[in-house]
Specification:
single chain, binds iron/sulfur cluster, alpha/beta, two-stranded antiparallel ribbon, 12 strands, 371 residues, ten-stranded mixed β-sheet
Length: 371
Amino acid sequence: MKLTPARPSIHGETLDSLTALLTAHGHPGFRARQILAWLYKKRVRSWDEMTNLSRPLRTWLAATFALDPTIFVLTKQSEDVTAKLLLELEDKALIETVIIRAPQLGVGRENSRKTICISTQVGCAMGCKFCASGLEGLKRNLTAGEIVHQLIQVCRLEDARTPRARAELASFDNIVVMGMGEPLHNYDAVIRALTIVNAGWGLGFGARRITLSTSGLVPRIRQLAEEKLGIRLAISLHGATDEIREQIMPVNRKYPLKELLPAVREFSLKHGRMVTLEFILIEEVNDSLDQARKLRDIARDLHAHVNLIPCNTVEGLPWKRPSLTRQEKFARVLDDGGVSVTLRREKGHAIDAACGQLRLKTEKAREAAAL
Ligand code: SF4
């Protein structure tokens, strides 16, 4: 089902598109920069706060655009310093945005690494077997404005946490595009959103600190390699052979490893950056030492970093997390083989942080309340 919000979000406009729109409607084009500064530097919550704009212009803006395309519903904070924001869109659909604060050894939490994980679709069409977001399929693509506005919501949350100094997005180390949805399945909106996130007139966040994660849509990976944005790429690999990957990732039938891996290599060569291979460890599915050795060979060949992620328990799905010993044995095969590897310690298990879980639970609770 394709649903689109009634009014487009102003957070989906670029400097050029907003200038053109203003001019076409008889307003001075230079106002575009002022409007964008109110949105991204001041993060205003109403058109009336844009005090250097004329009343007729504010009235036109209010009639033309949604100022808040996402509405904050709730946040869940877990002991392991992961916070999850549940956001509602104009059509009542729900999405998730996650803040991960990873404390560093010997330093306080305020100095820890901070990452924001954003969503790009409501649901997902890829149907990965371990993922709550894919359980009920794709509902719709997010607009560029809805993607960007997730970051405004994070900034507002941070502003509330640190009331004396407005927390800038720059205080975050990374933005990862690996929440709900397959970003390359919503290509144009995602590229437009990341352009706004990166631009000086937008959120001004460095492209090298933005990572897009894909399940492996090969033609789109090649298209992404041609973009000037210069963002990083992560591949959700999760299987080191077609046989294993196909069991848990239907996308592998369309784009098997013999097509995926050369596209990843091309991206890596073109951008001169290390690609990350994400690998969810699932007991007795892909956690054998044979898989570890094959993953080691792929990573060596691509000069890629490997991120091992012990799987989360998801209600309705049968997968189990391997024991810590087994996780470490798997990681050692890669490490001994000279591969750069990290074994992720759990973040967010207690708050339904596996992709899509909080949204699913809230939707089910809403349905039950409506009965
Ligand atoms: S893991 Fe990513 S691509 Fe796969 S179903 Fe979940 S959201 Fe979609």
